Amino acid sequence: MRAVDENAEGAPLGNSEHWEHFEELFPMAQMEIQLRLSREREAKEAAEKLQIQTAAEDAMANLLASSIGAMALQKAVAEDTLAAARAETAALQARLEASDVAELETALSKAEAEVQEAQRGWQTARNALGQSEYVRARLTERLKRCKQTIVTLNDRLFEGGRERRAARLRVDMAEGKLEVALSDATHARDVAASHRAQRSQAQMETRWALEEAGEARLQAEEARKAAAAATADAAQARAQAAQAERVASEATAKADGLAKDLDRTETEVAAARRELDHRIQSSFSIPAKKAISLAVKVGEAWENLSVTKTDSGVDITVEKSDNTYRVSIELTDASLHDGLLHWGINDWDVPPEAVQPPGTREAGDQAVQTPISGNKVTLSFPADGCPSKVVFVLKKGETWTNNGGSGYSAFLKPPGVDELHSKIMAAEGTYEHWSLFSRFNMALSILEAADAAGAEGMALVATWLRLSTMRQLDWYRKANYQGKDIAHVQKQLAQRMAEKGIECHFLEQWHQKLHQNTTPEDIHICEAYIAYLHTNSMDDFWRVLWDNGQVSREALSSMTHPITAQPLHLPQLIPSMKHYLWILKTTHSGADMDVALEMARGHLDGELAWIIGDILANRTAWWVPGKIVQARHRLKQYWQREGASRDVLLLDIALDSYFRLCVERTDLGSLSGDDLISLVILVLDNASVAAESSDLEAALSLWRRVAEQERWSGDWARLAMAASDFSALCLQEYMDRIAGLVQPFANDFKAACNIEPKYILNFGEEVVRGQPVFMLSVLLRALGPKLRGAASLGPWQVVSAAGADGEVLLLPNLDGVQGQTMPGATIILTERLTGNEDIPEGVTAVLTSSATDVLSHIAIRARAQKVLLATCFDHGHFEGLKELAGSHAAAVVTPVGDVSLAAIDRTSVGPEAVPGSASKAPKISLAKPAMRKRGSSWVLQEPEFKASVVGGKSLNLAALRQKLDSLQDVSLPASLALPFGTFEAVLASPENAAVAKTVSLAVKELADTAPGSGVPKALACLRELIPSALAAPAGFKDELAQKLVAEGLVAEDAFTEQLWSRAWQAICTVWASKWTDRAWLSRRAQAIPDADLSMAVLLQPIVPADYAFVLHSADPLTGQRGSVHGEVVLGMGEALDAALLALPSKRLGLYPDPSQALLIARSDSNGEDLEAYAGAGLYESVPLAPLLPRTLDYAAEPLVWDAAFRADLLHRLTSLAAGVEAAFGGVPQDIEGVLSGDRLYVVQARPQVVQN
């Protein structure tokens, strides 16, 4: 019974929240359910009453049986006693008859006494019977008659039994009724379940009806307001018309007078004619004195800031002079002439009276209205009080012209990204009434400002609209709109964004599979899902999936991105999924191109329309991708035009999407190396149509030239490999820049709009993957092994370069360690990576045998976390690395791009690298320098360089200059040095007392930091404090200027305040680099006290370089003498890592600005260039003016293409390395220098730290 009751109570019929709309839409079902529920409740109540009554009857029967048993016993005893007494009486009577009287009397007395005693016993029994009758009030009547016969009592017992049987019968009947009620309730639930899908649809229809009703009410309200406003406007228009006539009359008279005045001098007339024409046409009343003032100002030079032409017949020109901003509004549509300019500034604020043209009247608290005479009006603003923009609409009679609802905007001083960001976030996060229509209107209104703010501004708009497309932002929030309105504003927005060069593709996500790419199987998956939504049966899902696409459950779960989860039954998604199915079918059939071509055909020339039509007619042919690229190049001129049609842009997007689909469908494993190279060039060429990237254009030029050469020799393969590496770097920079632009804004939308984190976490990465040029990374990954094999470049592909050490951990994959923190530094060896994993904290390197995409999730994470990530293509070599599992090892990237992994002694690495292994005893002692004496020179010239006074860099340069005779065609730049102790002396000067106190506290905090506790904040404090707050003592500036001029480093008249400020900033930054994180951690690892390190500064000129180089006169890995290793890059170098064993592939070169001071301040501490401690690179070198990055053009680079030039340069560099080593007594040297013109310059030489 209890189980049945709980089942009945557990039915979902009483959930008012879920049945609210059901009661409204299905009253008959509601009544039936309520009736059945009522019957069920009555049956339950009857059952409960019967149970209670039965229990009571059972209790009474038990009590009655107990009482009757006791009374029967007492009655039997009393009857036995009475019978015995009667027997004795009879015996006494008999004896009386036989005996004399005395004996009879005695016996009689005794008998009477015994009779009395028996009567008392019988009375006692009666009293006990009365007491038992009192126990139960309801049995009192029955118990009073207990003295009657046993037959009477048995009758009553029989009656009780009959009542119990009747009660049992009633219970059985109630249970039967309850079963019937429960059956009815179950039937009611089944009926309700059968209506659930209908209920969902009905709820949707109800909401639609309510929305339409709300929209109707809003429209009615707006109509009433419009009627009232129209009445008010009519009255105002009449008044304005009268005023306009008066103003026009006055303007004409004043204009005539002004013309007469201006006729007096031809010079004034010529100077003021343009401004006067503008003023007269705008019917402005210009007093004579003001006209003369304007005539003088007309001579100013005007810079044209922007020209905007709209489809509605309104052209807007914004100009700027030194002191004035000017907005000219010209009406090319004659129907707009002689109307009113309804305008405001910024976001509809009333402009100051001083800038309002004559005749302007207030129009509410947000705008003013200025009459337009003819077809042109001009607004002027002083530069110091200029608003960010002018906003306006036009009115003529009762007709308003408002640019399709978005209004017109003229941007003078573009607002910053922060202002646009705040405006969007306020609307999305706080507005009570908001909709998709509102969003598009706001996007239209700020689009010009976003464009003026640059890439960051347009990235904000792109992120905003992408999140809207993903429905992560509200489309309806107490606001409605009509379909025709949203269609119009959407078209306007798309067209305006086309003018800005923005393609905002969006990806329809189909679990993780669609996150990567879409294939024809997605059509069948969608069909199967729709079948499931109709029937709520997974059998139908699998049946349709197999019947339509021959896709099995196993095939679905074994895809690269498997689908294994069972879907939820959400029938309300059926319309949306049918639409999505249409998208998939049109995408995979290219049908969207057919529609796009028909819509855009009227805007194309006949030949281009024929070419695209030919592509559509042969869309599966092998040559289609190439034809698409040709067509897109020709199509570009159409969508780049001012006022270009949205349909042309959509056609280009459709062609671009189909191009990617064609590349994705290609079986790359079946292609030859030549075919892959052709595809690489084609993908880069396709990207060049719309991607404004000098990097990708340089990669395209390089590949085209590489493809022209005779292929597949070892030299050519190394050339192609360099091109591949260069292309990967260019692609990485392009994609990282896009992700970096949109991801911060996505994070802001998440915070402002409460978007689920899963939609935001990898938002930037998904935008990157949506770019068609993303396929370049897939092609380069497929091409890499073929080039490596031909070039003999080794088994490794380094995706993220970094040094690493830690315990080697062997894993099948990273799935089991996601989200974990390693107990110590860890190097992971794994067979398989999908590219979607995160790198656990504590991991210093991930080495794998599976190819890894340079733009995969894990690759992006590795570069961000400075983790070594590399792929080994040699299976045997990778199997050998597994033998290191469980040992402590170090991994380094070799100069030729391989990875070296070898076991090391755990105690040989510093305490910061290996937790728990901190050494308390110093391992290295730094030579204590001589401290600067009071009154000595602040700046030393080269003859004054001495040991313990300056560092090794300065000493080596001075020594090398004395031996230049043995080095032909080699020069050394002049140099100055700030000796050891200069920083301490400057800090101790009176003007730096407060800084010195702060530095002392920070240094004490560093000394008190416990080993292994991380990077203390005091380091950043010192690095910020010293360059910003340290002041130069008296005499320092003058001495520096005098010696810079004396050494020819600066012209006498070139030492300006700006140069001094930059020089002092650079010097202080070098001093502060003593406390970089790397330097401090490195010293801690070697137990070197901070106080032992002293920092001198070397000042040198920057030699404008064609090439920069670093030479190691001994093998840096083995220490082998006679094996020169070098690195050469173009310009000053971004990072010198292009070894002479391979061709250069760095993306950027760094070049000095010849208009700036060409000086650099280099660190020269006593903790660098030590035999047991490689401290080079830990401290800063700071140019006085930043070096300018420039994308390198290897397609025309002699170092790449001119073998004779390259051989000559290599010969000269090896000779230089040998000569410098010999000059220092055969000690291997680490040499830095540049080639400028035809001359080599050595800017630094120091002993090479050699691995033995």
UniProtKB/TrEMBL annotation:
Top-level taxon in the UniProt lineage: Eukaryota
Keyword Metal-binding found: yes
Alphabetical list of InterPro entries matching this protein: ATP_grasp_subdomain_1, GWD-like_N_Ig, GWD1_pHisD, PPDK_AMP/ATP-bd
Single GO MF descriptor: ATP binding
Keywords annotated in UniProt: ATP-binding, Carbohydrate metabolism, Coiled coil, Kinase, Magnesium, Metal-binding, Nucleotide-binding, Transferase
Sections of the chain in a coiled coil: 75-156, 218-275
SUPFAM superfamilies per record: Glutathione synthetase ATP-binding domain-like (SSF56059)
Pfam families per the UniProt record, alphabetical: GWD1_pHisD (PF22973), Ig_N_CWD1 (PF23166), PPDK_N (PF01326)
Domain Pyruvate phosphate dikinase AMP/ATP-binding span(s) in chain numbering: 1063-1251
Residue intervals of the Alpha-glucan water dikinase phosphohistidine-like domain: 795-903
Keyword Chloroplast: no
Domain Alpha-glucan water dikinase-like N-terminal Ig-like, first and last residues per copy: 308-408
Cofactor(s) annotated in UniProt: Mg(2+)
Subunit-structure text: Homodimer.
Family per record: Belongs to the PEP-utilizing enzyme family.
Entry protein name: Alpha-glucan water dikinase 2
The species this protein was found in: Auxenochlorella protothecoides
Lineage: Eukaryota, Viridiplantae, Chlorophyta, core chlorophytes, Trebouxiophyceae
